[in-house]
Amino acid sequence: MGSLKIENVKKSFGPVEVLKGIDLDVKDGEFVVFVGPSGCGKSTLLRIIAGLEDASSGDVLIDGQRVTNAPPAKRGIAMVFQTYALYPHLNVRDNMALGLKQAGTPAAEIDQRIGASSAMLSLEPYLKRRPAELSGGQRQRVAIGRALVREPKLFLFDEPLSNLDAALRVNTRLEIAQLHNRLKATMVYVTHDQVEAMTLADRIVVLNAGRVEQVGAPMELYNKPANLFVAGFIGSPKMNFIDGARLGETAKTVGVRPEHIAVSDTSGAWKGTVIHAEHLGADTNVFLETEKAGLVTIRLFGEYQTGPGATLYATPDAARTYRFDADGRALG
Amino acid sequence: MSKAATSLPRTIGAHAILLTYTVIALFPVIVIVVNSFKSRAAIFRSPLTPPTAETFDLIGYTTVMAQGDFIQYFQNSLTVTVASLFLVLLFGAMAAFALSEYRFKGNTMMGLYLALGIMIPIRLGTVAILQLMVASGLVNTLTALVLVYTAQGLPLAVFILSEFMKQVSDDLKNAGRIDGLSEYRIFFRLVLPLVRPAMATVAVFTMIPIWNDLWFPLILAPGESTKTVTLGAQVFIGQFVTNWNAVLAALSLAILPVLVLYLFFSRQLIRGITSGAVK
Ligand SMILES: Nc1ncnc2c1ncn2[C@@H]1O[C@H](COP(=O)(O)OP(=O)(O)OP(=O)(O)O)[C@@H](O)[C@H]1O
Ligand SMILES: [Mg+2]
Questions:
Q1: pLDDT per residue over A128-182, tens digit each?
Q2: Which of A 130-159 lie inside 8 A of B, CB atoms?
Q3: Which pairs from A315-321 meet CB under 8 Å and 24+ separation?
Q4: Which of A125, A282, B185, B253 pairs with A104 at a CA distance of 20 to 30 A?
Q5: Where are the transmembrane segments (chain B) (predicted)?
Q6: Does domain A4-230 have CATH number 3.40.50.300?
Q7: Per CATH, which fold does A237-324 belong to?
């Protein structure tokens, strides 16, 4: 009931072209995440889907219907904002009810929907409070509740977790994931946090400078990045890029993820000196200045005793190296 | 409040400065009010002493009440001030909302054009305004004054309010749009309440020059039925003899309504000024 189709959407602000022709198909019930660096146009694209911004050209279809000229309220969408955007003068209940009242929903049904979604989000104790009397996490749950009661065809989230602290972010992320499992609703979610993207998404859309770089399931992007940008953007720490010529390869650039490099004290492909080691408990990140490949980051699982000055040998997992041509496209 | 921020000498110093300023600012007002209750001889003999049993005299107030139609003048002043204030705030806020919210060609130019009036005194256009009012048959009507004062107050209102409205969260307005609120509801129900302090600031800055104005009432509406208080009080100031009792009494009375309006707006005004937008 809630598919989304974007056809060649372009957007310019004055002379600046922010979206350079975006095509996208989102199936009913899918959870799609837009990721990309700051300023790449994620929010702009989401706002165009919502109808809060007009596209310069191109079309948006929700549920098979062309909504390019429909106002936001008539598109069957609900949106959750980074800054919560609750109405400050209304209590929680009225915040959730406003949209339904505007749409002329009967009072009994409003009550029933608010009851259901506030139970789902454990909002019952706060229904009579104003937003100012809630914590950040509670406010964001109210904002999600306000989206829920509309029973939209399409949920839109614009960085809903960025204003929450780390612990709350994990909890709310889980809540959103559960919500998606329960409702089976179509969701489009914008974030620049790749952990959110990897954990929530059925499919990730990687945007860069107004273009779609790659669309795919999280593991697809991780295992088969289409180009240098996606390879560098997905995965943390970032993939190591090594000049192909230094390794005697024909490819312009060779990429190896930090977690796909083995180390040894005695022998290996690349000899190097440790510059710095980050001990994170579960992982250890080692920065190794190698003679052959330059500076590489290595991610070791568990604790690993080493420090600046130590000599180590690094060996990349040959099956998991990536090769890119001069234009940054993945080879093979 | 934290202890660290309030050392005793600093508190005393700050209060001393503020009290001195308050005394200086209030002194002329108090002299006017005090003397308005004294007889003419007492006003000149000892202008600074409060009225005693001997010198107490309500002659000023009785003259004011007897002479002309002061109640009418008051009504005129109030009507003109309140109506102009209402229109300035309404149209100023609406224009500010449009300028801050919508992207359209010439937005910046329009904003500059609207703000131009802050620097160019409207009195420069008096002759043209008078011709306009004569042509449209509005001379000696309160409407003429209301129109002129609305024009006079708008530039500052648009300027201040658009700055404030730019700060209102876009997400909030967008949430309203998604919930199906009309642009008018978004403006009146979401945005206006959030810029209330700025509205109060604008209200006070708009109201006082209007109430005190002598120029336009004298030129556009000098008729008996449309006289404002400031103009009405002029009858007591003669070329050769000035009825000081009556002038002081009229002025004291004229303070009251502004004072009431000011008290009405002051809490918001303080919030507006301390939130740092009108520096
Ligand atoms: N109203 C506007 N006028 C002019 N330029 C704009 C406007 N809104 C956005 N832009 C520009 O469009 C580009 C994309 O903005 P957008 O908000 O979509 O970025 P984003 O990907 O959401 O970034 P972030 O992760 O920082 O939120 C930015 O370069 C921004 O400067
Ligand atoms: Mg954004």
A1: 999 999 998 899 999 999 999 999 999 999 999 998 888 889 989 999 999 999 9
A2: 146
A3: A315/A261, A315/A262, A315/A263, A315/A264, A315/A268, A315/A269, A315/A270, A316/A256, A316/A260, A316/A261, A316/A269, A316/A270, A317/A256, A317/A260, A317/A261, A317/A262, A320/A256, A320/A257, A320/A260, A321/A254, A321/A255, A321/A256, A321/A260
A4: A125
A5: 12-34, 78-99, 111-134, 146-165, 186-211, 246-265
A6: yes
A7: OB fold (Dihydrolipoamide Acetyltransferase, E2P) (2.40.50)
